[in-house]
Amino acid sequence: MDEQETRRALITPALTSAGWSRDQVREEYPINDGKMEASARRHRRGPALVADYVLEYRDDAPIAVVEAKRTSVDVASGIEQAKRYATRLGLPVAYATNGREIWEIEIGGNRRRVSRFPSPEELWTRYCKDKGITSALEREFMLAPFDNRLRNTDLTPKRPRYYQRRAVNEVLLAIARGEKRILLTLATGTGKTMVAFQLVSKLRRSSWKGGEMPRVLYLADRNILVDQPKDDYFEPVFGDVVHKIGGGRAQRARQIFFALYQSLDSERGDEEALFTQYRPDYFDLIIVDECHRGSSGSESKWRTILEYFEPATQLGLTATPVQDKERDTFKYFKAPVYEYSLKDGIEDGFLAPYRVRRVHLNVDVTGFRPEPGQLDIDGDEIPDKVYTQRHFERSLAIQERTEEVARYLTDYLRQTDRMGKTIVFCENNDHAHRMVAALNQANLDIVAQFRDYVCRITDDDGSAGLELLDRFRKDDTDEPVIAVTSQMLTTGVDIPSVRNIVILRRIRSMPQFKQIIGRGTRLCLDIEKGSFDIIDFVEATILFNDPEFDGPPLRIVNDRTDEQGALIDSTDDEGMPDSEAEEVSEPVAPFESQGGGALPGSGTDGYVVTDEDEADAIQSSKRRIYVNGVTVFIWNDVHYQLQSDGKTLKLVRYREIVHDQVLELNLSPTDLRTQWATVKSREALRRRLREQCEITEEDLLRKLDHPEADPIDLLINAAWELPLVSRAERAHRVRREHAAFLGSFAPEARVILDTLLDKFTEQGASELSASALRVPPFRQMGRVTQLANHFGGVQHMHEAIDDLGRRIFDVA
């Protein structure tokens, strides 16, 4: 019997005889979606993890996994597979069977052969013992079904993923056991809002507060963090019981409240802060989104709000807990009851994998030192010292450096996807302003069609910036395409369609690095976005190599800057301030958007790390120095691809990239040369190479360093290691081996073809077209229509040029 027959004839009947009903046995149970792997075609999806059987005590309450093998297969081959599935699902026991024998695997314990499957009651008792479930409330929480009333865009139920179910259940167990401070750590893009929604739904259908509905407060420091869950998750299901607190008035006739710290802390006239208008025990549960931010400091003014509502159960949600002397997520919320990392999300196929391009500019590598007496753009002499990457855009800005970055990014988008949404993270708002100007200048052709193709979205841009952000976030908008920011988009903004993250700001904070990378990790398969690219100009991605990347937080250094980006003071890892400036624990909002919330990324919550000598340089300069007339160019760019462990980046040489990508086209060397030979098929092949393989003629010539060869020969040499043939050699062979072909034309036409051979030798196959006849030396021979007459008409001229191309490329 094959596996399906074994299951039908032996395994399912064995489960039935043990007391498992049809409703309790879930066959082909999907665990994940299959890992997305970055490739030449941007992504491919690997096989999904699917358990043969999951045994549920009640609906949505799995308690064991069964891995099935056909009768002729050794049952031992399914043990590790069963163990892997159970571990992911958080189940204490799994089974492997081939229908003839059954093996029981205790996760982290014994494994043994058994004569039969346990009954549902037996397994439920074992499950409760393993999880430490003793009270009626704990059992009620675990057996309550999840809420499937939310709908996807195709109107199918929006069901929680396995790790979201585990997160909800771990929080519920903590609540049932009376814990008051609870922490969940879930990577950016893994659905913390879904977890919050399911948690509230289960609590509302439980006996947690006797016969009363629990009062819930969802608290954050940004409008977007409050409005998105309220509008997309809670209001569609719970309706009028949902309310956003604001306007300085305490609303009590609802059950699920959303609020900004800023709104609760606001005062009106002689009245006290709004949060004090509620009793300290008014809320039963407070959900603190992005809990590593505003209220994380022990001396924070916003922490006072949480401490005021001390009787409430408080749940912290974050992707990046922080821990230093002033901010300690763990000290307040305790250790996470559940963690789901970026690596986990990529491995499961719920997050997009990434490729990394590290680009080095010559001035970043060698530094910049002004010539004696060299003046800046204001006519002032530039202080004589060596300026390095840590000074650029903070104390000194080189105009050509900004322009070279804009040129490189524009070329990259031309080669990949001109409309691929891109976020550029700059050092400060001034840097972002100049980068927008440079990118706009480099993209005038497309800006003429899309006026907001490039835009700045920072805390200085007011309501116009919020409008651009709202358009940028949507999957179906053509513009903006390139959003340039400093800190505003580092966190709290859900933009699944982002394909490129460009890092131009120095980052030494692990939480901030994770947040920035998280802007690209969301999948958006509706637009075929299954992976993304990180273009790193400042070596920020070296943090991927840190062993703590997916582990506990690093101790951090906090800098405060003024509105111009100048440093005010800095706190080192011992927590000692570098100046006596007044400490500010909350992000400072330059202005309030509707509802009183600070814009995303405003203020000092980015936790930028600055060396002491850099701080001295900035403070002593009094102003930023602007320099032009400096020679800036790309020193080198190297490509890295994410490996199967979901964390390691491997350096991939360009020749290897070309080899792997070309082989995916399923074209032989002869096919490639044939398509390259004629005008129409050559253009189609160019487009296919660019869109599917991200290969351009310019890159082939520059990176493979054989300017004497035609791009198609370089491509074939890289893919199959066939010998290179220079363009001059190809032209020589045509004149020698196809003299009869050339001699069959009238003298004037023969001169044209011979000149085309010369042009091919100099510049390549792009010269083998009628359009080449519009420039010298053909222009001196006459207009194109006149030249065509020498061939007997335009059609015959096109045929002759294509025939010449075939003869050029008909030999290896």
Molecular structure report:
This protein is of the alpha/beta class and 812 residues long. The chain has 5 domains: 3-131, tt1808, chain A (Alpha-Beta Complex); 139-340, Rossmann fold (3-Layer(aba) Sandwich), CATH 3.40.50.300; 352-553, P-loop containing nucleotide triphosphate hydrolases (Rossmann fold, 3-Layer(aba) Sandwich); 653-720, no CATH class; 727-808. Helix content is 36%, strand content 16%. The protein is built from 28 helices and 27 strands. The strands form 6 sheets. The protein has an 8-stranded mixed sheet, with helices on both faces. A 7-stranded parallel sheet has the order 11-12-10-13-14-9-15. Helix 19 crosses helix 23 and helix 22 (697-704) packs across helix 23. The protein is globular and about 100 Å long. The model is unreliable at 551-621 (pLDDT under 50). InterPro entries: EcoEI_R_C_dom, Helicase/UvrB_N, Helicase_ATP-bd, Helicase_C-like, Helicase_Restrict-Modif_Enz, P-loop_NTPase. Pfam families: EcoEI_R_C (PF08463), Helicase_C (PF00271), ResIII (PF04851). Residues 173-339 form the Helicase ATP-binding domain. GO terms for molecular function: helicase activity.
